[in-house]
């Protein structure tokens, strides 16, 4: 017999006995047995209910009590809707901001890459330890040797990005593509939804022109028909046979619509060990760590270094997890922002805890009576906790809505500056996070007031007419206010530092004038010849025609990589004088810019000495180059470099005469410190030949200086391009200002978010500050009344209230300033974002403190005014 | 319990008063063990019938006290030789009784003071 069953029987027996005794008593008092039994039953009450209640005592009662507590909590809270609404909204803002920020961190940093066993995927770069260069692209022949000799990897693959003009049926379209080695999709373990992957034999120079297409292109262009296999796709005028279709949503860093075999599309690149032009990825064998793979592949590479000293001397290996490579430096910044938003939550929590304190104080007598009447302390604490958790969960629910809104409104505009930004959204992990945070907030910040207001001393509150522990409450509230003020100061300072950074960056002279410059690429007609000369001529003609357009001040062609801040760059070795260095790997490097003659005028880069290119500098004339003043100072100190000779090793460009010295440009962004690779060399586009690029047209961009708006000038330009040939595309239209401001995107993202967080913090903290001062005035009505009665002037009363507020505010500012200094020294992910201002900048700190102090004074002043109006007669009667 | 009918809507008040019934039971068991009916009778008798215990409500209270470990139950025979369950105060219960009694006195004092503020403060 189960324990419970036995207990039920015993209780039944007990009740039967009870009634029997009572009946017997009644009979002895002279009732008939029937009357006696009825009277006994009546006196006993509802037997079923008694049994139920007793069973409840046995059963686990917490759930039951929880419902009771929740019900009571809802009733209590709805009696004070103002209080409940303020608390819920404050928490909703805090939890909402945290949920939004967490969903960003989750999507970008925590979520695994969408491939099978992504932790085994790595990216392999070559490095030059002697030049402190890591994570460089690799050469195809090296990759092939690794593939043959290394054993740490299950599979390896290479890729490079490309783009094509898609012509044929429909309007010509410029689409992004990737050139991949056979085994690329197998390495990532991505199955085709239709057709097949490339085979090894296909991925050879002279191999068949086959293409795998994206799911999107399949749907848009082929209406998702299975008959797409075997059809042709006209890319840059050539027919490619479609052999496979990728699953929807597949992307490798960027979205691409066509994938072609690397060796077929780019044979020149594949045959040259000196060109580090491809990206290499691999899947580690199970159980092999990155370090093991790194050490094995380094041994392999060391042999290659010996075997091919001309190309590979001093080349090392750098292996990184694919995810880390995708995410880059964002991790530090995102965690910093997550830290900031947690501060906002703490500030919100401090507010709610203060509200709970104030309310707990008001309800002290209720608690005292309850506990005196036998409710255990835990019971009252649990009741209070239920209320605070109720508040927090409701706040969390609204917070989810706020997070959703925040992701759309705030992140919508800056999502593109985040790697894996497409991955950010609300999913079940985010929901779980929001729920967990709400629960934790409810418990943690309900617990302190609950414990405090039910502590043993509350019996004093009955005696003291209810104001016994007011002082203790004020002390706790004071601590919360100080913490709030401190955290708000930290956020305000951080936000101001970034504001200053962005302003400083705007004032930086990048060495060129970005304003009024627009750049775009042109896809030449597929019917045109692709020889370098023909492409150069075609572009020259386009440039000449665009120059005639009204509003165009200057126009020329340049290699896209040459545009400053284009995120990509090209550097090459060079040497000065006749003596060639023993190894090119040890020769100095310079950034190479290939431009047309008008480029300086368009970019307004100053010409310091000599001349720049003219249309007369062609393949038929002497090779000439221009250098920047940095190179001039470093390699021709105190001399005039014009007329000297420099050898550019890249592509055997050979010896060239320096014709001019131009200003240095900041190539990597406005915050480019200029310490890496500072030298810059300009080569005329019209003196390039025998390039490794398969199609020069793709590498060229047209640069236009015009005071007109892009939208106004582009139609005319497009007309010129289409006028030359209807099947030409105009794509990647960007203003230089967009390019420049993209280099500040990290700072702007951090600034926008920190500004939002700081604003939120300021709002919440000032409400909290106001609430506490206001509460303390209410508590001190009698005291103030007595003072006024004893002759205190309004000034004194004002001083009393403002003094109390200012003491708290200043204590908070001091705490905040200390935190600012500590964080400023220990948070590289933040200080790296800054430019032109230090994380511990005193002026910024003072300004932020001033703002905060001003807000605090306003928040104090309102309750102080109320204190002034206190009538001593009324106040002394006040209870 | 004390008032004959307590509407279930006022659960909170039941809860408040439960504590007091507990106190009364503990006090009743102080001299020695007793069965349920005897406890009810004693409370009624000792309060000069002011407190009318709805006898059934005794049982949830008794079992709650058992759960707390303040009383224990045992088989026995009643005064008229009937078999009955007897409840006995434990050492822990004895200690609890002292605490509850002193709490109750403080409360009563305090409430009295609140109800008679004019007399108190002059």
Describe the structure concisely.
The complex is a heterodimer of chains A (879) and B (122). Chain A is α+β, with helices and mostly antiparallel strands. Chain A has 31 helices and 22 strands.
Structure explained in plain terms:
- The complex is a heterodimer of chains A (879) and B (122).
- In chain A, helix 5 packs antiparallel against helix 14 (330-362), helix 19 packs across helix 28 (794-826) and helix 28 runs antiparallel to helix 30.
- Chain A has 879 residues and is an alpha+beta fold.
- Chain A is elongated and about 135 Å long.
- The model of chain A has no long low-confidence stretch (mean pLDDT 86).
- In chain A, strands 3-4-9-6-8-7 form a six-stranded mixed beta barrel.
- Chain A has 31 helices and 22 strands.
- With 122 residues, chain B is an alpha+beta fold.
- In chain B, strands 1-3-2 form a three-stranded antiparallel beta sheet.
- In chain B, 31% of the residues are buried.
- The model of chain B is unreliable at 1-16 (pLDDT under 50).
Which helices and strands appear, and what pairs or packs with what?
The complex is a heterodimer of chains A (879) and B (122).
Chain A: H1 3-28, H2 33-44, H3 47-58, H4 62-79, H5 81-110, E1 121-128, E2 133-136, H6 140-149, E3 153-167, E4 173-180, H7 184-188, E5 194-195, E6 210-213, H8 215-222, E7 232-235, E8 238-245, E9 258-261, H9 262-265, H10 267-270, E10 279-284, H11 290-307, H12 309-312, E11 316-321, H13 322-327, H14 330-362, H15 364-372, H16 377-414, H17 428-453, H18 459-463, H19 470-507, E12 517-523, H20 532-547, E13 554-559, E14 571-576, E15 589-595, H21 599-603, E16 607-610, E17 624-628, H22 629-635, E18 645-648, E19 654-662, E20 680-684, H23 696-699, E21 700-705, H24 710-724, E22 729-735, H25 736-742, H26 745-779, H27 781-789, H28 794-826, H29 828-831, H30 842-868, H31 872-877
Parallel strand pairs in A: 4-9, 6-8, 15-20, 17-19
Antiparallel strand pairs in A: 1-2, 1-10, 1-11, 3-4, 3-7, 3-10, 5-8, 6-9, 7-8, 12-21, 12-22, 13-21, 14-15, 14-18, 16-19, 17-20, 18-19
Helix pairs in contact in A: 1-2, 4-16, 5-14, 5-16, 5-17, 6-11, 14-17, 14-19, 14-26, 16-17, 19-26, 19-28, 19-30, 26-30, 28-30
Chain B: H1 11-29, E1 34-35, H2 36-46, H3 58-68, E2 71-77, E3 83-89, H4 91-115, H5 117-121
Antiparallel strand pairs in B: 1-3, 2-3
